[in-house]
Amino acid sequence: MKSGKLYLVPTPIGNLKDITLRALEVLESVDEIAAEDTRTSLKLLNHFQIKKSLFSYHKHNEQGKSLDIINKLKNGVNIALITDAGTPGISDPGSIIVEKCIEENIEFEVLPGATAITTALVYSGLDTTKFIFRGFLPRENKDRNPIIEEIKNVRDTLIFYEAPHRLLNTLEYIKDNLGDRKIAVCRELTKLHEEIYRGKISDAINYFNEVRPRGEFVLVIQGKSDEDIKAEKEAKWNSLSIEEHLIKTIESGIDKKEAIKIVAKERGISKKEVYRYSTNL
């Protein structure tokens, strides 16, 4: 018997008109639909007058249900996987069933479509050539500290998802750990009350202290800039005299002549001025 096929089908992140013709075609053609929340998905399917058998597939039953899906696929059943909004596998169920399909050599197809990541990134006005997406930050500092430590020095634009009740806490945490960078706080993307707030993180904190956070948020944050790096270097050496700075550089294994050049460049002064402090070293 020929195996069935799994389709990972993106659904609109807000505006129902954003569904693709191909997505509708697949949803109409499959035998069954696996849905993150069958109630939410039923509203979508009813809107497009699609009548199909639905079963739940969410983060709490993903492991067991993946095995059920594999068995159905082996028995020739064609299945579409959808989540509440966006592309399956992106901060939503989907990656586990993909892994199992690859292991079992079962055919699957990923349809292109809506995702909040790229919409927010382009809206932000920040660098779109390189970015890092980390989904939702954990609630506890002990869990999110390693993530921030890993990405705090990258120049890539940073993207996170966040819930309204955690927004201010997350903004404060990011400002304390990454500095007061540029940010775009994107709310309710593609929906009636879509809003993009751009400014410094401190400005966003002030704004959302006045305006109650509602809806779903995507945070797009500037990567580490040249100005940040320069300020850090200046802060690092501000507490040292020129002589102490020179000694510390030489102690790192650099010869005196090269150390003079480095110190002069880092402090923005002439090599001649630094040299005066090197005569006794």
* Percentage beta strand: 15-25%
The H-level CATH homologous superfamily of the largest domain, spelled out, is: Tetrapyrrole methylase, C-terminal domain
Which descriptor suits the 3D outline? Answer: elongated
Q: Approximately how much helix is present in the residues?
A: 40-55%
Look at the helices and sheets and give the structural class.
alpha/beta
Q: Just give the CATH class of the largest domain.
A: Alpha Beta
CATH-defined architecture of the largest domain: 2-Layer Sandwich
Q: Flag low-confidence runs.
A: none
Number of continuous helical runs: 12
Instruction: Estimate the mean pLDDT confidence.
Output: 92
Radius of gyration of CA atoms, rounded to a whole number: 26 Å
Q: In which order are the strands of the major sheet placed? A: 3-2-4-1-5
Characterize the largest beta sheet: strand count, sense, and whether it forms a barrel.
Answer: 5 strands, parallel
Oligomeric state, counting identical vs distinct chains: single chain
Succession of helices and strands: EHEHEHEHEHEHEHEEHEHHHH
Distance between the termini: 83 Å
Total number of beta strands: 10
CATH topology of the largest domain: Methyltransferase, Cobalt-precorrin-4 Transmethylase, Domain 2
